[in-house]
């Protein structure tokens, strides 16, 4: 419980010295050190200060800011400033402005007003990155780099500029070689969408009605690649000029606009920006919880929502991620922005660590006194006094949070191709890739199980149970990998599994294509249920009500575990099992929890059903219990105050098999 | 009950052989024949296959597809492929792309990406139509033609291109002769909207706020005419090249964007595409039924909604319409897309026949394995196995559905001028032309009455009762026709009757203008009721709550049947009658049902009040009873299983006079 | 109670003789006189009749219309017709069309299709104004002028044309002198938004995400100034050509798009257009009343909503305003448009007078029989018969409404800078400047208190109680003025007071900046509460539930009156008082009412708590009691019929101190 300091959780803060008078800098640095912080993140968005006029650099202020921090022993994470191109660059090259799906140019005046497909913008991105990296790359206080900031924020990952269209056509030509191949892959015979010239191909989303999902899917892959190469150019320069420092990027929660695995390649680890109260409202439309439940979590966010993202971002590189921006007070971008509960900042920090975070930077040091984020809190108020989060950070003993590895035996598979293909045709209000995937994750967490969220093509040998909630896109290679996994692990699949080929088309011959053999079922029908309409499922003696989605199967030498009762699917299989493989076709939280509980039990994974709002997380041999509710909970002899954490002996956990369903 | 096969309902299917391997074609044709289908609809959207490059035709595949069908004795309905212009045409002539009301060009990538007002597009439409008709027009298997597909789909009937604006100005000049006449007709003195040059006239809908309803009304007439002439050019070519074959078009349910009577002129009969579960959700905003009622019909659609459209489309030409696309499984375009109930496909087919359909083509043979409609079902699944609808089609004995005429004594009047004028200024959330018209239709159907939906200028002599729910536009000629009708029939009018002249202006002198004498009332006030506010009406001893709309009248030598009680209209007439003419001013389902019941009774029309979800339809001397609910119903000694049909002896119907109101 | 006629309320009507046949004019004028009207408003929107072709004026019709009115002794208010530029002007100069925030040009076809920043449009505005004023400026019947009509209607106050952008840049340069000053004032170091060239500055609202509130705030000031100078040009011409006549403008209720104080400078008095049933629905999103309460007022509007606007518009110039358009039947622009209750027109007229109106013009004489407003009522119906409002106007004895001054001792401070700054970042769904300000006004009115709504920089010496609900923007000068006011008056402040400097930035040093000393509190935190989440406040023995907003303070030598209980603000001050200054941080109707009651009592202002829907208003020594509900109310011995008014002796009012809270 008392590791070497160097191996404990790093705390830091996002600071913008350029926003305040330099006379405050020394005091701020001293306070930061005294608060137990060990690093500051600097220079995000500061391009107009680094290069006030074209080619005219001003480093004096940043030199001083870094020296002041270093003087207090603080380390520095620097950011490439490309998320906020300066006005003079836009004036000289208005063609770098992004264009939205609606065809409107997005003007200067906030941030991310640039098209990553623009060769001109790319050139300036490389230039400012090199200038910055050359200046500070080898400074002893500088420990690492953040590339840009929140790629895709403000719906900017997909741009609709002439540059993007032309690059998309080139990308397609490189990928498909011939138009015949592209027309076949996209199924362009449908509605006479066949192309006879690469230059005919438009960007999707601007037609009379929805474009082909294959068109959309390839556009998402293309734009993801554009951002990945944009970042790779920066990383290459940073590696060149700043050896021995880490490179990371600060992603966002539940973000769909690019392949985060692709963008993490070449980074040392992934980071993300965690704003639990905001993310709670952002997913309101998913129908994952009743509105009154969402209100109950208004001041903490929901434990599984935050944990899910930690597990996603840890999984991108497979080890210790960072929280590059950690909410430490109220935010300013949700429809309403309630104050966090007392204890929430400590709760979030402890959870981040327990789910594998090695570093946590609070956003931000002092609340901004100007511009767009004036109503967003920091550790200090506008008047310089410590705000509510400050005291909570002060109370954190990082020694209690050693940087030991997270080792889990349960994997949940996650894949952006499947996400894009699923969400291009959700077919049911309230359903989408994230909602379906999260339902399985939440069920696992409610059973007290720790989860690795990994890519389906990753190494799956460490896992005893593999849950694939929504692997819509299935290739022969991926099917082979899953067949191999089933030789050592229990594998659970959700609805729409393997519905599509890599191209986004249905499998040749229908059904689950290359995965059909493993699943042991032939899909019969899927039922998309509007609000108010449910479909009963009987599993053993219990009945569960599927909502939003119900999928039925013809078993092929396969055991039927649950059957639909009543309705158009009456009597058909809802849950099947053949050996280690389980298929769940009905969307019901209780059914999913029950089936997963059985599978975990069969795999020898300890199951501990937990009350709502209470969660257990393990890192190494440390077991953290948290109560995210506003009430004191007594559980297995432990008293958990509202919004609090507790370390317990893992052995003390009573492993209760879930109610047999 | 066993007519000659040639005089029984024709069943067919929409097939897209170009979507699958030709090796499957012979088996498909054999299966189609064995299923009892007698025709296939082919070549819809197949322009890029017919003419892969400008002027370079490829007929080989279609030759073979037709021969394969013919070899099994199947007849063929061919489509002009103009709903999906190929990419090369758009590349060569980008000006043919449609522009939306928001000024944005709608790009290539789905379908209907063309402006029917474009002379260039028109030229290519004629060219491909002639090439196709010359090739197949006299093929013995080809029995008829579908022009284009679903005119106006994707909000494309109204385009805002320079070509459309220029053509609109020319059309206005031809219609009005002088600007003085146009300025007077539109009332352009209002807000200084007077024009002094034809070139000043803009397209409506792009101004600071709403344009004049007269401006909008003429724009709807103009665009309707553009589509009508677009189609007429195709029909002329088809008549020329393909004598003896029918020409039809597949319209859509509750579609407002053009005058369907105008577009039916020159066709042999009208067709429509019936998707009962989708149409149910599409009219959700009309407030015609409570949300929980809509959920109850989620798997069948509502009987009156589907029947209403059958009666509209039969009425366009006055005889046997076709269902050119009949839902036979779940669709993919509603917010949620539930599976149809068991029995629904048979139920829909029987209803279509009972309401006068001579042909029904299921959409589609095999579910598409690619592109936009992958999640839309067909008779076969992706994997080629028969889907749920297949067995229902197999069970249909078409001999039970002879093609005898539908003869009704009750007419409901329907007119697109009134629709456009009404909906340009609905004045009350939840009210529109369709909702008001449907309320009267539903009341008639709930009384067991069969209805012809006809144009007000049609021959009304066959009818004993004529219901005109929403004839907002009234000309002297139309008034004379209604006066003549009242000499032999009972006539019932709803609110807003005759509110406007042909120009969309209020009647000169106010009130009902030329119809005032017939109505026998002077309108006092109309009340537009927000949700939660109702207005009581007393009719005899009963009280009814008007919602959404209440209109009061000063009777002129006219009997007052119902009076408003309380509220601003207290004591004023809500329902009046003078001789054969009844005026209903209050929007209340129970009031409408009661008054109509009385009128029907007085006219000697048999009235059979029916339980919710149960409906009776007559064709010739065949009486079909249907239960559209999920429960078994026992009614007048007949046991009706859920979602089922039954033929009964008409004599067995107990004609119950409705509760006297 | 029987003043000279010349000193009684003037009634008039908006008439559009050009909409009807001149043969009707003499009868109309006679009827108007007989109805007791003394003036008509003419020529609004009539540009195309005044100048049918460029430079070709036609005055004959207007000459006659004025003579016909004058012949019956009616006075005339003329309007400059610039709210509806004619088609020939738009054709010749399409660049005068406004452009919306979405970048789309707003076309001809309704009204207000012009950019007030366009030099070309300005030139034509001056030209037609001079021609009209020269023609009629000295006509003896003409008593005054209305400039234009409803500036900003249809979201046209802010235009996004190249002319507007260029003028904005020029305006900024004049205001700030240097880009350094502008960059500092806006805080442009944030997100690298610093400008190095004036030409770089875009219009706000078209960027990737929200622009800086300072950017928005200056844009609102700029566009307000554009309209003010546009109007000033007209007023200068009117003064020149039409001496001795008044100049006014007809504003709209709760309108935010410009500074109404700025636009009233140079006018003789302000007018506004009062549509009580419409305004009720327009504020639906504010969450100021439950939906069922809104339904209860559907036929009258809410008394405080209408009174609030009367008090705003009286306060613009500090004396007798006019209602230039008074609803006298159902309107046509709300989602639903219920008929007014019987008595509502008389009720509204009496209230207008009691709140200081000197003139009321009903809108409109006869309902329009054409174009956009056909479904909007007038005093006469389409058929020329008197509509429901006519009889009510007939019953009004204007002698009972003498034009004595309104003298109040309670002021409510209102300021458009604060409005814009607040609404640029509302931070909580349902909260905005108007909703917060209105909550305080409503509380005062529910206590039977009459209120002057005045600008914070106005003369505050007449007041014993000053309520400043939402003075977000605070300058040193304004703070000094409030400190001076506190020497003679009790002053009450609401949440967010003094949060920002004039630039829209937070105060230097945070907190309330220059007002901190007077408030005696240091702000700790604000809590933004989503629907369903409340925050308890204890005040004495009572508990109140704050909703939407809760703000906590650290008192500095200041008494804490109320404290938060539970939640993140537990134990912190919610209401404080130091001497004459009270600060209320929690948004709770009952709390606000209670605290204000105490303050009024302490200030010696008579307090009379009133039942919902019943209100008392005083003008001079006349006390008017009104019942706005649909039920008869007995109160203090007075019987008030539904929707009715009563004069009482002020002495008979029982001044009840509100429940001590």
TrEMBL record, chains A, B, C:
Keywords: Glycosidase, Hydrolase, Metal-binding, Zinc
Broad EC category: hydrolase
Source species of the chain: Deinococcus rufus
Catalysed reaction, written as an equation: Hydrolysis of terminal non-reducing beta-D-galactose residues in beta-D-galactosides
EC number: 3.2.1.23
Name this protein carries in UniProt: Beta-galactosidase
Domain spans labelled Beta-galactosidase trimerisation: 409-604
InterPro entries: Beta_galactosidase_Trimer (IPR013738), Class_I_gatase-like (IPR029062), GH (IPR017853), Glyco_hydro_42 (IPR003476), Glyco_hydro_42_N (IPR013529)
Protein family per UniProt: Belongs to the glycosyl hydrolase 42 family.
The organism's place on the tree of life at top rank: Bacteria
All residue ranges annotated as the Glycoside hydrolase family 42 N-terminal domain in the record: 16-395
């Amino acid at each position: 419980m008392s590791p070497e300091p160097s191996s404990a959780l790093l705390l830091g803060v996002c600071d913008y010295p350029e926003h305040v008078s330099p006379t405050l800098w020394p005091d701020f640095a001293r306070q930061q050190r005294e608060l137990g912080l060990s690093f500051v993140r600097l220079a995000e968005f500061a391009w107009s200060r680094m290069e006030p006029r074209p080619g005219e650099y001003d480093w004096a202020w940043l030199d001083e800011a870094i020296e002041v921090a270093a003087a207090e022993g603080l380390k520095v994470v620097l950011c490439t400033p490309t998320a906020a191109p300066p006005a003079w660059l836009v004036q000289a090259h208005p063609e770098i402005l992004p264009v939205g799906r609606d065809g409107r140019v997005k003007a200067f005046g906030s941030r991310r007003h640039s098209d990553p497909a623009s060769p001109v913008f790319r050139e300036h991105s490389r230039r400012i990155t090199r200038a910055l990296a050359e200046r500070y790359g080898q400074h002893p206080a500088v420990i690492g780099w953040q590339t840009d900031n929140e790629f895709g924020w403000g719906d900017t990952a997909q741009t609709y500029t002439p540059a993007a269209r032309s690059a998309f056509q080139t990308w397609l030509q490189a990928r498909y070689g011939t138009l015949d191949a592209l027309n076949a892959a996209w199924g362009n015979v449908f509605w006479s969408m066949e192309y006879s010239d690469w230059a005919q191909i438009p960007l999707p989303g601007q037609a009379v009605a929805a474009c082909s999902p294959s068109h959309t899917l390839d556009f998402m892959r293309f734009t993801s690649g554009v951002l990945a190469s944009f970042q790779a150019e920066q990383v290459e320069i940073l590696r060149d000029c700043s050896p021995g420092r880490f490179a990371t990027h600060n992603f966002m929660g539940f973000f769909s606009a690019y392949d985060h695995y692709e963008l993490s390649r070449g980074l040392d680890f992934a980071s993300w920006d965690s704003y639990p109260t905001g993310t709670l409202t952002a997913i309101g439309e998913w129908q994952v919880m009743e509105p009154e439940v969402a209100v109950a979590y208004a001041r903490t966010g929901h434990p599984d929502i935050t944990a899910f993202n930690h597990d996603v971002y840890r999984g991108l590189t497979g080890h210790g991620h960072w929280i590059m921006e950690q909410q430490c007070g109220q935010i300013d971008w949700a429809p309403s922005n309630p104050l966090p509960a007392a204890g929430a900042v400590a709760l979030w920090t402890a959870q981040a660590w327990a789910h594998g975070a090695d570093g946590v930077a609070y956003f931000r040091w002092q609340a901004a006194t100007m511009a767009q984020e004036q109503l967003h809190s920091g550790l200090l108020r506008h008047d310089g006094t410590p705000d509510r989060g400050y005291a909570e950070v002060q109370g954190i003993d990082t020694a209690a949070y050693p940087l030991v590895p997270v080792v889990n035996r349960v994997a949940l598979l996650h894949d952006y191709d499947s996400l894009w293909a699923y969400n291009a045709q959700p077919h049911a209000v309230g359903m989408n890739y994230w909602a379906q995937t999260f339902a399985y994750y939440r069920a696992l967490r409610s059973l007290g199980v720790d989860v690795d969220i990994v890519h389906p093509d990753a190494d799956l040998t460490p896992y005893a149970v593999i849950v694939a909630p929504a692997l819509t896109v299935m290739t022969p290679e991926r099917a082979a990998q899953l067949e191999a996994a089933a030789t050592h692990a229990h594998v659970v699949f959700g609805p729409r599994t393997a519905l599509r080929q890599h191209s986004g088309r249905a499998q040749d011959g229908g059904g689950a294509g290359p995965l059909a053999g493993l699943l042991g079922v032939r899909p019969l029908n899927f039922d998309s249920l509007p609000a108010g309409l449910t479909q009963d499922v009987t599993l053993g003696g219990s009945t569960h009500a599927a909502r939003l989605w119900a999928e039925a199967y013809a078993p092929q030498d396969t055991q039927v575990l649950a059957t639909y009762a009543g309705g158009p699917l009456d009597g058909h299989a809802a849950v099947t099992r053949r050996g280690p493989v389980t298929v769940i076709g009905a969307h019901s939280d209780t059914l999913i929890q029950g089936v997963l509980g059985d599978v975990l039990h069969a795999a020898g994974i300890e199951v501990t059903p937990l009350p709502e709002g209470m969660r257990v997380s393990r890192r190494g041999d440390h077991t953290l219990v948290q109560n995210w509710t506003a009430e004191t909970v007594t559980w297995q002899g432990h008293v958990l105050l509202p919004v609090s954490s507790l370390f317990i002996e893992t052995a003390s956990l009573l492993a209760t098999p879930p109610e047999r369903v």
